[in-house]
Amino acid sequence: MRPLSRISLSLRPLLRLLAVTLCLGGAARAQADKASAPIPAPTLALIKAKGSSAEAPILIRAYKKESEIELWKRAGNGRFVFVKTYPICRWSGQLGPKTKNGDRQTPEGFYTVAKSQMNPNSHYYLSFDVGYPNAFDKAHGYTGSAVMVHGICSSMGCFAMTDAVAGELFAVAREAFAGGQTAFQFQSFPFRMTAANMARYRSDTNIAFWRQLKEGSDRFEATGQEPVVAVAAGRYAFAPLKDKDQEALASARVKEEAAHVAHLVEDGAAAIRTTYSDGGQHPFWAALINRGVPVGEVSRPEALAYAGQEVVLIPARRKPPPILPLPEAVWSVAIGPGAPLSSIRTLGFVPPQDRPPARISFDLVTGFSAGLPQLALDDGLSAPTFRRVTADAVAQW
Q1: Residue 150 is a catalytic residue
Q2: What pLDDT was estimated at residue 354?
Q3: Is 23 noted as a catalytic residue in this protein?
Q4: Which position among 150, 153, 263, 282 bears the catalytic label?
Q5: Best exposed site among 74, 262, 276, 293 by fewest CB in 10 Å?
């Protein structure tokens, strides 16, 4: 009979293998569980309240300066409707496009997320690849890859959302794919594309690129239709909508916004540039972290103290309002004869009604004696006769 100690020693490798298998199996089940977790009930209620459903197509918009991501759902009327905003826990880099691998820039532009870009096995809880580089980025020779919307709070060019938020976004996208959507659009902007912001950032080196992004943003907001994006001559181009009425709305919005920006600049709006040490964070997460609430790993927390520093490139200049002429019916009542203000006078000012009749104060005879008009000479009128006639006329006047 073999000693118990020897049996135990011979079983140790098997037990270790069994333990590892159980751990891996448990981890796999946990990973599968979080990837299949349902949409949280409050969010599902919001979706239904907007006239949409869990299976309806989605569209996501990101704003770096505001550190926010928006969820939009297609409603029963065919328009995309806003559902809710998620605070971004961490993004990195500066405002502006991502141009090369390792620049820590979160990208800006119009991207496409297919089902194959969803990653249920991410090292950062759950994630999906936004689709960088797209056709625009490739046309400009930009490099890099694996730009994600993921969990935790650490970014090297990604949109870090914390695990709970990443899980909810993953669930919403998963259900849209299950409902038949083949890919959703991910719109990434430097800031909210308002006329006021475009006027404020007009001197930034990226403004020409941002004007292209604004056109796509304006078209979406005017119609609620996902813009059909292409790239022509290295620029974003947006195909006209098939519905003529919708296309008219989109075109009108683009023109109105351009005119609004021009008006703000003409009115003297300041021009600024916003700088970051390394990206930013939504105040919601900053407040939680300051209270000691754990949100997981936070990348480069020291850089957040220098996030969003505004540099004024052109100070604000307010144009004085135009001085409109006071209607006669108003001023005559106020300062006319017998009016309450008729006795108030500016020093040296004599109102027209108090001035003496105008008289000719210059000497016509002397004035003309230096050189008689050629016409009088041509008519045979002598100089003495012309002076006498002129003097008589002045005396009579």
Answers
A1: yes
A2: 73
A3: no
A4: 150
A5: 293
